[in-house]
Every structure is written in C-alpha cells, then in structure tokens.
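FAQ: What does the model actually see?

It sees only this:
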Amino acid sequence: MTTASPNSMQSMATAAAKLANITPSLLVGGIWQRTRLSPQKRSIATVAALIARYRLEQLPCPLQLAMDNGIARGEPGKRITHLAF
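And it is asked to produce this:
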C-alpha cells in the first residue's frame, strides 16, 4: 500500500531524510492498522483533510486507497463537491 505520492516523498526526503524514511512504515504498519476507525472512515477523513488543506497533489494515493477500502466510486466526488463550498 502506498501512502504518499512519489513527489511528496521526494520533497520530504530532501528536507527531512529520517522522517521520509519512517513515514511509510509508521503509516502502513501503525496508524492505518488501528482498529478504532474503519479503513473507510480513515480514508474519508484523510481525503477530506487533504482537500481542506488544498493538498491536491497528494490526493491520488489516498483516493485510490479509499476505493481499495470500499468507498463507492462516486463518493469521493460528492465529498469534494461538498467541501469545495
């Protein structure tokens, strides 16, 4: 499972090599495996946060992960439209 776009990971690696090195394992092996929130709810929260912060370049991987986590195909578009206003 990929959690960040190659460009964002490359930028982070340049600025903070250790952070870039531990981020994938921390996210995949830790935060995303916690059971208090379902993978669907985590995906919705992540996509919403990225939209709210206008981090559109980081959306492709979380959107794909949302689909992999069972979010219906049309749902992300509805959430994006809702958050746009």
